[in-house]
Specification:
By secondary structure, the chain is of the alpha/beta class. It has helices at residues 38-45, 57-70, 87-99; strands at 49-55, 74-83, 103-104.
């Protein structure tokens, strides 16, 4: 087994930056902003708006979205591109995001 891979039909673009998170053994890194350098790169590139999807809605996506809002990004959740670990926790995560001003698409 070769590990995680992108689907072979995924469109590759030189502008895409792949961010690897969760590489530490001594602590969880749920947010994509946690010690990845992403915020600095986005600021350097002049990015102000983020569209977020992924797994899991009530854990990593929630942490990422909340950090994005805290860091001043206009943040959009692509609801069809995420799923929770637990449905009830997912509902609560959506409520938290909406209260923080996230736009749910």
């Amino acid at each position: 087994m070769s590990g995680s891979q992108f689907h072979p039909e995924l469109i590759h673009d030189d502008r895409i930056v792949i961010v690897t998170k969760g590489t530490r053994f001594d602590q969880d890194q749920n947010s994509v902003f946690d010690e990845t350098g992403l915020q600095r790169q986005l600021e350097y590139d002049g990015v102000r708006r983020l569209f977020v999807g992924g797994l899991a809605l009530d854990v990593c996506v929630l942490a990422t979205v909340m950090d994005a809002v805290q860091n001043g990004f206009d943040t959009y959740l692509i609801k069809d591109a995420t799923r929770p670990v637990d449905e009830e926790n997912g509902r609560r995560a959506l409520e938290q995001m909406i209260k923080r001003g996230v736009t749910v698409l």
